[in-house]
Amino acid sequence: MVDKFAGFFIDEISGEHKKIINKITAAFKKKDWVRGILLTGSYADENIEKDIFSDIDICIVIKRSEIKFIEKNIKAVLREFTDPVFFHRVPCGNLSFSLWALPFIRIDISFKELKDVNPRFKINRHVKILFDRSSLVKNYLKNKKTLTKRISLSKITDLDALFWMTIFFIFTKIERNDFCAVYDAFHLIVVKVLLKLRKMDYNSPPDIHIHNIMKKDPFLYQELEVILDFPNEPTDSMLRSIILYKNLVKRVLRQEGLSFEPEAEQLVLRTIQRGLISKPKRWG
Q1: Where are the beta strands (DSSP E) in the chain?
Q2: Which of 6, 47, 57, 128 has a Cα at 20 to 30 A from 22?
Q3: Measured between alpha carbons, how far is 160 from 158 in angstroms, rounded to an integer?
Q4: Confidence band (pLDDT; 50, 70, 90) for 136?
């Protein structure tokens, strides 16, 4: 079933979901302190499977002067479009809330200044603009490249340091046959580095869920399964991690028009190669 809603197509959106999205849009676009209303998450991407249990993800773009007002009056603000069964503030978000409305539909709603909206969002791919006062949001997302380069380079630098430090750690633990520590370290690499790099690839939405990444990139998950396949061959997993890491970094940077050649890479590879030559046996 494909339904047309708010000027775009949404796959399998339920009637209740549509009602809630309409109520949110109608309630907030009347506020003079609202600059825009964005639909994100699964309902903003036609390529992601969704059903009647899918969450609704909404971002309300607000003026800075209204942050304290929203913090003090959040219950009244939320009740303007629904009577939530339960709601709580998300600890990791500044003004982010999760609430459940009958019939048990979860709504994740956040209030952000325009400068805090993710600059990697692509209109009609990662985000749908439900309301945009004076085209402020649309213009911001169209002129995002300089922001994106700065943010991405900073993140990749941090991830690069974490990756190579963990590779060094793994190598020393393999030498000592400490496979519990090795497995934990590989799990850290997969979750904290490789998946984050994949999410930075613009070919997939930045906030996409892991099971949807698997559907979009089965090769990536085949590699991750091999990397975490213990105690089969941790040395092989380490080399696969390096190859996969380099490919993901190059993919992200190519899209940014950047080049990034960490000097640590050559030192690590030489160290690992020396270890493999001096100890060619299988580990396990």
Answers
A1: 2-5, 8-11, 34-40, 56-62, 86-89, 96-101, 105-112, 128-132
A2: 47
A3: 5
A4: confident
Count CB-CB contacts under 10 A for residue 187. Answer: 12
User: Distance (Å, rounded) from C-alpha 105 to C-alpha 82?
Assistant: 11
Least confident of 10-14, 21-25, 70-74, 197-201: 10-14
Mean pLDDT value across residues 148-171:
75
Taking residues 252-270, report their average pLDDT.
Answer: 62
Torsion of CA 140, 143, 146, 147, to 10 degrees: 20
Instruction: Determine how β-strand 86-89 pairs with β-strand 96-101.
Output: antiparallel
- The answer for residues whose C-beta is within 8 angstroms of residue 242's C-beta and 6 or more apart is 167, 268, 269
Q: Thinking of the domain 2-142, which architecture would CATH place it in? A: 2-Layer Sandwich (3.30)
CB 99 within 8 A of CB 78: yes
For tokens 């409305």, the residue is 101
3-class DSSP state of 274:
helix
Q: How far out from the chain centre does Cα 251 lie?
A: 16
Q: Find out whether 5 and 18 touch, Cβ atoms under 8 Å.
A: yes
- Cα separation, 203 vs 252, in Å, equals 10
Tokens linked to 114: 């325009």
Joined tokens for residue 77: 């603000």
- Residue 245: HSE in the Cβ half-sphere, 13 Å Cα cutoff: 27
How far apart are the C-alpha atoms of 188 and 184, rounded to whole Å?
6
| Residue 60: φ, ψ to 5° | -100, 115
Strand partners, 86: 100
- Residue 272: count other Cβ atoms within 10 Å of its Cβ: 19
pLDDT value at residue 137: 87
Domain range summary for the chain, segments of one domain joined by +:
2-142, 145-278
Please, what is the Cα angle at 117 between 197 and 34, to 5 degrees? 160
